[in-house]
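Hey, resending since the last one bounced:
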Amino acid sequence: MLEVYGTRIGSRLFLGTAQYPSPAILARAVEAAGAEVVTVSLRRESGAERAGQGFWSIIRELGVRVLPNTAGCYSAREAVTTAEMARELFGTPWIKLEVIGNHDTLQPDPFELVEAARILCAEGFEVFPYITEDLIVAERLLDAGCRVLMPWGAPIGSGRGLANPYALRTLRARFPEVPMVVDAGIGLPSHATQAMELGYDAVLLNTAVAKAGDPVRMAEAFRRAVEAGRLGFESDPMDARDMAAPSTPVLGTAFLA
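The structure tokens again:
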């Protein structure tokens, strides 16, 4: 079972809640995924008419834990303000911290990200920072008070899978005791399995399920993929070899002269 900020979570698949064809399909997908944590953008609960009230009612009915995010923020100040509003609205100290630095790749700005994390941790937030695979940025975030890291697999919404498995493996090995969630870029269930086989604690995805032809079946596929990847990692898999090695012993078998 995964534990983050003192909370135990049975499912290692975190699910985003945007872009689904309908609220009903979203609800069915969350159930099929077995997800216990869903991410929600503050922008869904804004506006004078409370346009997001129906959506928030659905999330409450699912009985899952909400991880609000600061999606769309481009500065530490903006992210901190958004996080403070999210804490008041959703009633949780959890915040998925995104501070974007590039429009095209949606790559996080490491300087603004670390500054926002420092402020939010000091204010009592339990921060889940969205980062690249940068070891130094990861270390600075941990120094700032973060106890979870969320490195990307690939740019948000790209569906490219793990663009740099070597860097992800290195990051995992550098901080073996820190809970880590691969966030963004996952497009196929096999990508999620690969992340889990590297020793990551969970995966977070949205577009791969929401934009699938059948989001509910895809959610179930990802649930099984995450479970398989975790079981594979915990089973101490064999090391890869450059040469063949017979799987059938030859000792005691007959040889014709």
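The CA atoms of residues 56 and 108 lie 27 Å apart.

Sorry for the duplicate.
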